[in-house]
Amino acid sequence: MDDQEQKLKELFTEQDFRESENGNSEILAQRKSLAQSFAETGNGIAVLSDYQKDISYIYSGALGKKIGLESNSIKEFSAFEEAIFKHVPYEELIERHILELRFFQLQKTLPVCERPYYCMLNSLHFRTTNQKYIPILHQSYYLESFPNGSIWLALCLYTPFVENNKQIIREIINNKTGETVLSDTYKQLDKQILSEREKEVISLLAKGQSSKQIADILNISVNTVYRHRQNILAALQVSNTAAAVEIAVRLNLIH
């Protein structure tokens, strides 16, 4: 798992899960059955992620054999499906990372009962065992959340599809209404990721300014700059400044 995916994993697995587990095992069994049924029916790959236990359940049909999965049913001790991500090009993982940040921000604004209606949809490519790339449609749902808002179970579906002029799909859809979340909403979600001061700091970092120089420019202490830098890494779910700048540029957070 690369640094970006490791930090994104922490965003989910470090949520507050101090909730009663009464009935959780029954719900988990139902959702595992749902994932397995999709894989068997669509011959794709279904991944049910349990963020509370930091475990993923991977079920696959014919698509799994194409990328070398050893079994039709895998229990992986990581809520993020590393067995899948390692077959996806780096650039596409970055774009997926950005869309997941937006999806997570959107989910925090929704009532828990509304969350399962929303779907993150994006196109990827899988590297097969013969080193060729095939187009994949990826769908992600947050199926179960605790009353305090912590996301518990997520379902990712991977299905081969036919590209039309190599179109790129990166959308969040409300499956209840059939409406697509508009780009204006993305812009509002992006603005909420960093504070105004953090945007100033990341913008100066992007220009190559040191922490001491940033402190002088903003008339704040170096320790305050360090604190802002750590907050930026946590908010963007990356582990270093270079990755933070790259994500911030793509989110239009750089002044």
Automatic annotation (TrEMBL):
Pfam families: GerE
Annotated GO MF terms: DNA binding
Signal peptide: none
Keywords, alphabetical: DNA-binding, Transcription, Transcription regulation
GO BP annotations listed: regulation of DNA-templated transcription
Protein name: Helix-turn-helix transcriptional regulator
CDD domains: LuxR_C_like
Domain HTH luxR-type residue range list: 187-252
